[in-house]
Amino acid sequence: MASSSFRPSVSDSEIGYGSASLQSHRRETRKPLEVESVPSPNSREVGGVSEEGGVYLTWENLWVTVSNGKGGSRSILQDLTGYARPGEVLAIMGPSGCGKSTLLDALAGRLEANQSGSILVNGRKQTLAYGTSAYVTQDDTLLTTLTVGEAVYYSAQLQLPDSMSKQEKKERADMTIKEMGLQDSINTRIGGWGVKGISGGQKRRVSICVEILTHPKLLFLDEPTSGLDSAASYYVMSRIVGPDFRHGRTIITSIHQPSSEVFALFDNLCLLSSGRTVYFGPARAANEFFSRNGFPCPTLQNPSDHFLKTINKDFEEDIEQGLGGKKPKEEVIDILITAYKSSGSWQQVQAQVTEICKQEGDQALQKSRDHASFVNQCLILTKRSYVNMSRDLGYYWMRLGVYIMVSFALGTIFYDLGFSNSSIQVRDS
Ligand SMILES: Nc1ncnc2c1ncn2[C@@H]1O[C@H](COP(=O)(O)OP(=O)(O)OP(=O)(O)O)[C@@H](O)[C@H]1O
């Protein structure tokens, strides 16, 4: 699991996690989802159930509330319902501040804020076990002095169990590096402030490598393409959500402004505006939803740009609604939210959630995977820290300089002090 600075405090809600995979001996007998949905071009659906043995995540009536600083509260997420299935990629999109990261955090069980509603894993309220899920945060927290290979290999040693040999861990690290297309940069330093290293896109991929070493069934990605140009974004996203990588995995990603090529990689889309659902459903049907409600995407415009422009109320600009004339943004958003709540997409989402939850009977809790023992973790961290410090000359020499200065300052106090009481009193005065 990704490093997390906080843990959930949701004891009063129905929310719970667990790791679960569908028991293999019941796989053949599982009923297909009976919901008629637009088939996804990317998913590997078999009789309505896209992938087997994976993690189905559903959330219903999810609210997240924070204090508004004036003794009251403010809802960041309002009554969200949705699902994510194995072998599929769910993209969470919306204007800045609409609640994308909050939704991801809530689903991943990393939220401190008050939340209510139900989040179920394979139809059950359960806790995701170690190694079942991973969370790639928006910021890359990598040691800049290590090479790509070292960063991934040290992580493999920390995360993978002692029952795996060093060679097996190395192989897993190499395979993951290859999977993310980083084999040519394996010996290049990550680099950072003042030291040139790999590119921003490669850094994002290293961060992802580190998180997927345990082969998590559920992957959360927070803005995996932030700071990348459109070509790099496509390259990164096509690696992450490509057919080989997504197989059996449930991937949920928040994303700001995908190009049309990147957008085409998504199966489902959750479009948020001020914490409310504007649209949830097949990504390729979103255009039709906007057109049907009077906001067609202009020719040659990227659909995702059009969606975001239409529902972004940070900048006052009236929007043309078909023949209905221009409408203020607030009104446009309300029209779309109301239209979604009365659409077939909304009914399909509810039906899918119900169907997924119905299948819970045959889903066993997955055992928590092992990681390196405490002693091994201490040894690996010490070694990694030593490598890091010895390579970071500025940090190393600056510390050495400070220590020498402090020693000198303290030494002068005792220099030529003598051994008698009077000499100590003289120095004291
Ligand atoms: N702990 C908190 N306390 C108060 N407000 C919060 C808290 N967490 C999030 N918010 C607010 O909730 C809203 C949604 O935040 P969030 O980070 O989820 O948005 P986002 O869609 O991910 O934004 P961006 O795309 O810019 O990263 C923002 O207005 C933010 O200020």
TrEMBL record:
SMART domains: AAA. CDD domains: ABCG_EPDR (cd03213). Residues 57-299 form the ABC transporter domain. Belongs to the ABC transporter superfamily. ABCG family. Eye pigment precursor importer (TC 3.A.1.204) subfamily. Signal peptide: none annotated. Residues 1-49 are annotated as: Disordered. It is a multi-pass membrane protein. Pfam families: ABC2_membrane_7 (PF19055), ABC_tran (PF00005). Residues 1-12 have a biased composition (Polar residues). One of its GO terms (cellular component) is membrane. GO terms for molecular function: ABC-type transporter activity; ATP binding; ATP hydrolysis activity. PANTHER family: ABC TRANSPORTER G FAMILY MEMBER 11, ABC TRANSPORTER G FAMILY MEMBER 11-LIKE. This is ABC transporter domain-containing protein. Keywords: ATP-binding, Membrane, Nucleotide-binding, Transmembrane, Transmembrane helix, Transport. It comes from the Eukaryota. InterPro entries: AAA+_ATPase, ABC_transporter-like_ATP-bd, ABC_transporter-like_CS, ABCG_dom, P-loop_NTPase, Plant_ABCG. The chain crosses the membrane at residues 393-415. It is found in: Membrane.
